[in-house]
Amino acid sequence: MSLRIYNTLSGKVEEFVPIDPPKVLIYTCGVTVYDDSHVGHGRSLIVFDVFRRFLEHLGYKVKFVRNFTDVDDKIINRAKQECTDFMTVADRYIARYYIDMENIRVRPADVEPRVTEHIKEIIEVIQKLIDKGYAYVVEGDVYFSVKKFKDYGKLSKRDVEELIAGARIEPSEKKRDPLDFALWKASKAGEPAWDSPWGKGRPGWHTECVAMVFKHLGETIDIHGGGLDLVFPHHENEIAQAEAITGKPFARYWMHNGLVTVGGQKMSKSLGNYVTLREVYTKYHPDVLRLLVLFTHYRSPLDFSWEKMEETLKAYERLKGAIEDYELLKKLKVVEESEGGTHPLYDHVKDFEEKFYASLSDDFNTPEALAHVFGLVTELNKVKNKAFSEGKITKSELEAYEFASKSLLNTMKKIFGLLEDLYPECKVERVVEKELEAGKVYDEKLIEILIEARNIARKEKVFKIADYIRDKLKELGIILEDTPAGTKWKVKREGG
Known about the structure:
Blueprint: E1 4-7, E2 12-15, E3 23-28, H1 39-57, E4 61-66, H2 73-81, H3 86-103, H4 119-131, E5 135-138, E6 141-144, H5 160-166, E7 181-186, E8 201-203, H6 205-216, E9 221-227, H7 231-246, E10 251-257, E11 260-262, E12 265-266, H8 277-281, H9 286-294, E13 302-303, H10 306-324, H11 326-329, E14 333-335, H12 344-361, H13 366-390, E15 392-394, H14 395-416, H15 444-459, H16 463-475, E16 478-483, E17 486-491
Parallel strand pairs: 3-4, 3-9, 9-10, 11-13, 14-15
Antiparallel strand pairs: 1-2, 5-6, 6-7, 7-8, 11-12, 16-17
Helix pairs in contact: 2-3, 4-6, 6-7, 9-10, 10-13, 12-13, 12-14, 13-14, 15-16
């Protein structure tokens, strides 16, 4: 099953083909640390956290980088208000950010660079742009000349001449054209500054990400992501700088999540209509926020309200209850039954897993994937309600319910980061060792289902069936290894 994602650059849903599979290089723009993160930030963080998990499930080796902007006008102004230095403000809100991320179950990026740790690399990027004639120095400031980069506007689909006609130069600015943007800002009294070939100053916002991508990921990456509000001018300006230097695509795919709104208006600190992540997760289980985000397609706007949080809470409790009620079913009278074939729940699990992953493979359609989740919840509830009404359950029904509920739980933990505190002994991921063999494609989910069936057979001491599954997989080139941590599988190499 191929993965297809919407590429903002082309304006189309495209098949995802990494530069150097199975490696995938991803960069997303992080937060400017002058205040607590709000739900708008949280949406982007959750979307890319889940997308990263899905890529890893598909077998990709993801290197994920997300930065901190720790020097900026807003941070400097906050420091002045508090009569402290900018680094104290930045350090405080980075620490609070990590607490928020832990609470909403967003995993740390592989690399989380700070702007102030990359001044050398930023200066090098700016110098290269000057040397190539794309940037110019005016009294200690450095600007990028937009007209020099012929592809400017290709990400946002904006016409440069129209943009310049609508732009204005503020009296304090020294740039040649209205659309030119600052790469380096000459220092002002009382502000942080670093030495540079153009005098003391600090980086412009649009340059920092280019320098950090170059250092930690390379000149061309697979995916660059962020919120829709970053398409113009931030990401447009990143493309202009990076491609002016290298002459190569900066990112092959650009992914942007829709904005979070309140009453149809963008949630933002400047408008004062924001809700902090801290306020949300102190009122609701963090899974409720994750579920709220995943109920909306990542590219669509998400209108936040406490009423929607209440609706999502009910859905969350239904999902959680379907899994937890297995413990209640075990307490019912368990009766034997005559041979009746395989219980339908096994087929529902197979159908769920196929459709769930197909939905995620189709431009990361999480609301459709959740529809299949709750379809399986409905089937579980049918078995549960029947058993509760009769006061008994057959052995095959109980086994099927256990299999289905654990399959659902593992999927929710592994892909969506939900229910991670439910049955912590239930592994989030199987111990799987994947090796690629040219010319062969393996259905990993089917292999995992067969391994699960074999494990059930071994548990019930039906070794003839367990051995049959192992041997048939071996004939197909799949080698199983039983370990205390679970069953690993790998593809047998030719001649091995």
